[in-house]
């Protein structure tokens, strides 16, 4: 399943990244590496983008990008 | 001794605060050619060591994907620093260490500064800096720049630079599986001896396909691409992993190791201060009211309050203006020397723009505060969905608001604040649409037109004016991003939402001054240049001989009138020559200007300067002097009338006037005559001059004598309604043109600064101009043919734009071009 499907308040772990080039590099730099744990904090008031917690900091990601991150539920 | 220190760190790590804390005030900002990112340098001395500190832009990584990263990396390569100070946010250690590992590998000694240690402590994070120093084999200093802690320690380290350099041994990470490929490349590539950077680092960067480094290596290695791809392919075939992903994971794992060995978190899982605030600020229902409140506060404090402050700064400028008018050659009745004319023109043009300085200063300070607090990315987070639909970006919110999304902003800070938008396409679209907003200087123009033609429907018209710009901007942004900007790069919306921070007073003030100073420097120089050109366009070819003769006669008449009135006065011998009259007249006008300008002790000064003539200025009980005074008043009025008529004649026959006339065949479809055209053309210099030009054109009603005198008492809008022969429909068409019209020079200059291209600047000028002409022509012609009233036509225009926006909202978005989905690209 991909990150876009995780409901607010739940956590997951990255299994694979399906992004390429610039987006891939950006995601890696921001700490989206395999095995990293992500908590979905909330959706934006207009339901997109998402607010996430990864490596204990907050980051926002559009849903179209979240769909490229393959995850498995945590706990 | 001189040393060079580079300051590197991730965004939001408090790098600028550290820079401000240790660098002192001797800084300069360099703008890279072709790049809009600044590199700041500070110069200071510690003991007998002169230090140049280079503040690199904040970057998450040292790859070459963003502008900031390119600038930061080039600075390291070209400037060849003796030491890198790596600022690390202690409360966000793990992610910040990711960059630290990349810096350590460069081969230059690194000193780690753990900034915001107080914040970390508050969040229950304790860091063993000694242990960290041991593991990473570099000095680690705890600091808190916001509280001025750590300055001494950092300066102590800087003093020891020489020692550190002597004992430095290159830092290496063992990349396990990747090692053989790294050393393979290291062996193959040839490196210029002058380059003092570690060869291993170059090899690593080449493996990462870092374009800047690959280009650098190309000079000595023609076949670098093959060398690198051979190794990356081999690695991929053997381990089924990409080098970039491998390196990122590896560095994060290392960061994790350091984090676990050196840091302890006692309050993990507890809600932080930031979490608690975000519950309100990013709440689905509260976020919009809060956003609105923030915007209202910015707007009120900068535009409204700042505008009030200009009441205090204006006398300063008025004094400068008076001073210049004093030192330039005096006028001889109705003949003003061209040098005086030009000096006054330049002074007025410059002052018109400098007058906004208080507004800019407050605006820049507010932006700096918002940046420091951490609200900016949240603003983008809230509104991204709306703006993305139209090709813009969440980060476009602030530029549009500053530009005057509601009535009254200024495009200059608006365009300047687009700097941070990471998505290049959206950034360009924002830069080109911000000038469409309603700037403060357009407001008097609207008020004039509404007062003249829509006195009853003023509020509804104002509502249309203030909201229609946003609709138009969204449509135009959508149009631009799907046409001329289509091939521009876009960037993913991966944005950090930093923890909330209290801004530091010093930081805010320094940054606002910096930005205001940039404005003064860049804008003023070019504005003066353009003002000279406009002056020439308005002056030449000048009046015809017959016209000049006509005004000479008028002048003679006025003088004769004066002469008759004062002949019987006992003071006649003081005013019986032309020179004396001219001097007295200038004295009188100067006195009045200063009196009206509100400067103090005008009377004393004039009395001291010229006691003989002063009694004619303020006659008091002297009946004979009163006679001269009243004649003088009449002469002054006559002179001003002649000057005004002369000026208008000059405008009409000038090159700009000709251009206005030349545009008439086209602009007539929009309902504009040449006078409006000239007003628009001259308003390019500064928006204010549109009102001034229109005012001066309609001031001179064709009637003379009593009718003209009656006109003097009318307010400008009444005069315009009476004299212009326009209908409300004309006015609506003019308003629509003005809503879309090209930005003023100052804005164009910042567009040039931000896009770094003359082509885009010209586009930003001509596109709105042509568009405005087309739209208002269609608007006027159709409405005229259908005989719709001005108000109804405006309503139609408004609802048509609204409908287009709604339709565009429902148009499905195109798949974004950088997304992929290839399986097997696993890590």
Shape of chain A: globular
Strand line-up in the sheet with most strands of chain B? 2-3-4-1-5-6-8
Alpha carbon gyration radius of chain B: 33 Å
Could you tell me the mean pLDDT of chain A?
91
β-strand percent of chain A reads: 35-45%
Overall shape of chain B: elongated
Looking at how many chains there are and whether they match, the oligomeric state comes to heterodimer
Count of DSSP-assigned helices of chain A: 2
Distance between the termini of chain A: 15 Å
Gap from first CA to last CA of chain B: 48 Å
DSSP strand tally of chain A: 5
Question: How would you describe what is shown here?
Answer:
Chain A has 75 residues and is α+β, with helices and mostly antiparallel strands. Chain A is 17% helix and 39% strand. Chain A contains 2 helices and 5 strands; from the N terminus they run E-H-E-E-E-H-E. Chain A has helices at 21-29, 63-66; strands spanning 11-17, 37-43, 50-54, 57-61, 69-73. Chain A has a 5-stranded antiparallel β-sheet. In chain A, strand 2 and strand 3 (50-54) form a beta hairpin. Chain A is globular, with a radius of gyration of 11 Å. With 827 residues, chain B is of the alpha/beta class. In chain B, helix 3 links the parallel strand 5 (83-89) and strand 6. The relative contact order of chain B is 0.07. The chains are: A alpha+beta (75), B alpha/beta (827). Strand 4 (57-61) of chain A pairs antiparallel with strand 10 of chain B.
């Amino acid at each position: 399943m991909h990150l876009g499907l995780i409901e607010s308040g739940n956590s997951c772990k990255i299994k694979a990244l399906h992004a390429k080039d610039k987006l891939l590099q950006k995601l890696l730099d921001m700490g989206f590496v395999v095995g990293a744990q992500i908590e979905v904090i909330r959706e934006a008031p207009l339901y997109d983008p998402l607010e996430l917690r990864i490596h204990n900091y907050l980051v926002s990601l559009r849903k179209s990008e979240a769909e490229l991150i393959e995850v498995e539920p945590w706990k | 001794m001189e040393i060079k220190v580079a300051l590197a760190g991730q965004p939001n790590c408090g790098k600028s605060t550290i820079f401000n804390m240790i660098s002192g005030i001797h800084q300069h900002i360099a703008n890279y050619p072709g790049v809009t990112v600044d590199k700041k340098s500070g110069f200071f001395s510690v003991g007998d060591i002169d230090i140049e500190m280079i503040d690199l832009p904040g970057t998450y990584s040292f790859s070459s994907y963003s502008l900031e990263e390119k600038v930061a990396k080039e600075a390291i390569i070209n400037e060849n620093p003796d030491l890198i100070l790596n600022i690390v946010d202690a409360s966000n250690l793990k992610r910040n260490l990711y960059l630290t590992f990349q810096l350590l590998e460069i081969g230059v000694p690194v000193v780690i500064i753990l900034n915001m240690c107080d914040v970390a402590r508050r969040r229950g994070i304790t860091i063993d800096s000694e242990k960290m120093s041991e593991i990473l084999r570099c000095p680690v200093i705890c600091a808190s720049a916001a509280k001025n802690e750590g300055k001494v320690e950092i300066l102590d380290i800087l003093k020891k630079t020489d020692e550190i350099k002597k004992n430095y041994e290159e830092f290496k990470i063992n990349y396990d599986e990747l090692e053989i490929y790294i050393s393979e490349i290291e062996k193959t590539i040839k490196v210029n001896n002058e380059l003092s950077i570690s060869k291993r680092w170059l090899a690593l960067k080449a493996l990462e396909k870092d374009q800047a480094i690959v280009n650098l290596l190309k000079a000595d290695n023609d076949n670098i691409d093959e060398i690198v791809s051979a190794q990356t392919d081999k690695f991929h075939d053997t381990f089924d992993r990409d080098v970039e992903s491998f390196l990122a994971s590896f560095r994060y794992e290392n960061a994790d190791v350091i984090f676990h060995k050196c840091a302890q978190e006692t309050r993990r899982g507890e809600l932080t201060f930031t979490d608690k605030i975000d519950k309100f600020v990013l709440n689905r229902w509260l976020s919009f009211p809060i956003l609105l409140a923030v915007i209202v506060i910015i707007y009120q404090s900068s535009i409204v309050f700042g505008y009030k402050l200009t009441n205090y700064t204006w006398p300063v400028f008025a004094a400068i203006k008076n001073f210049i008018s004093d030192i330039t050659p005096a006028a001889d009745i109705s003949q003003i020397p061209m040098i005086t004319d030009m000096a006054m023109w330049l002074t007025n043009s410059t002052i018109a723009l400098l007058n906004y300085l208080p507004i800019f200063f407050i605006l820049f300070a507010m932006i700096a505060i918002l940046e420091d607090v951490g609200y900016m990315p949240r603003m983008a987070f809230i509104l991204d969905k709306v703006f993305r639909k139209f090709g813009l970006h969440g980060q476009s919110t602030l530029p549009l608001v500053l530009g005057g999304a509601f009535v009254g902003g200024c495009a200059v800070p608006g365009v300047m604040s687009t700097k941070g938008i990471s998505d290049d396409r959206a950034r360009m679209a924002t830069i080109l649409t911000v000038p469409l907003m309603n700037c403060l200087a357009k407001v008097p123009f609207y008020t004039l037109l509404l007062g003249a033609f829509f006195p009853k429907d003023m509020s509804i018209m104002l509502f249309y004016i203030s909201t229609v710009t946003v609709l138009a901007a969204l449509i135009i942004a959508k149009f631009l991003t799907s046409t001329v900007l289509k091939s521009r790069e876009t960037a993913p919306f991966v944005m950090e939402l930093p923890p909330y921070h209290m801004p530091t007073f010093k930081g805010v003030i320094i940054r606002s001054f910096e930005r205001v100073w940039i404005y003064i420097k860049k804008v003023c120089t070019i504005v003066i240049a353009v003002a000279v050109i406009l002056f020439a366009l308005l002056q030449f070819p000048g009046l015809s001989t017959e016209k000049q003769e006509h005004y000479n006669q008028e002048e003679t008449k006025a003088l004769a009138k004066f002469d008759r009135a004062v002949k019987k006065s006992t003071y006649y011998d003081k005013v019986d020559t032309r020179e004396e009259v001219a001097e007295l007249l200038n004295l009188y006008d100067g006195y009045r200007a200063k009196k009206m300008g509100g400067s103090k002790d005008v009377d004393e000064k004039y009395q001291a300067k010229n006691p003989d003539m002063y009694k004619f200025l303020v006659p008091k009980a002297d009946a004979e002097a009163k006679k001269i005074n009243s004649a003088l008043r009449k002469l002054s009025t006559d002179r001003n009338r002649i000057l005004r008529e002369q000026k208008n004649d000059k405008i009409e026959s000038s090159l700009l006037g000709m251009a206005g006339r030349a545009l008439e065949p086209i602009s007539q479809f929009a309902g504009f005559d040449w006078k409006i055209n000239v007003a628009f053309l001259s308003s390019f210099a500064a928006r204010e001059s549109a009102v001034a030009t229109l005012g001066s054109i309609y001031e001179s009603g064709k009637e003379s004598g009593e009718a003209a005198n009656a006109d003097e008492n009318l307010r400008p809008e009444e005069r315009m309604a009476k004299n212009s022969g326009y209908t409300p429909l004309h006015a609506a068409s003019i308003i629509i043109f003005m809503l879309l019209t090209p930005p003023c020079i100052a804005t164009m200059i910042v567009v040039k600064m931000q896009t770094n291209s003359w082509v885009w600047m010209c586009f930003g000028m001509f596109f709105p101009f042509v568009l405005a002409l087309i739209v208002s022509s269609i608007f006027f012609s159709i409405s005229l043919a259908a005989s719709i009233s001005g108000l109804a036509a405006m309503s139609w225009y408004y609802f048509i734009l609204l409908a287009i926006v709604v339709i565009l909202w429902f148009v499905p978005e195109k798949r974004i071009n950088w997304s992929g989905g290839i399986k097997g690209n696993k890590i």
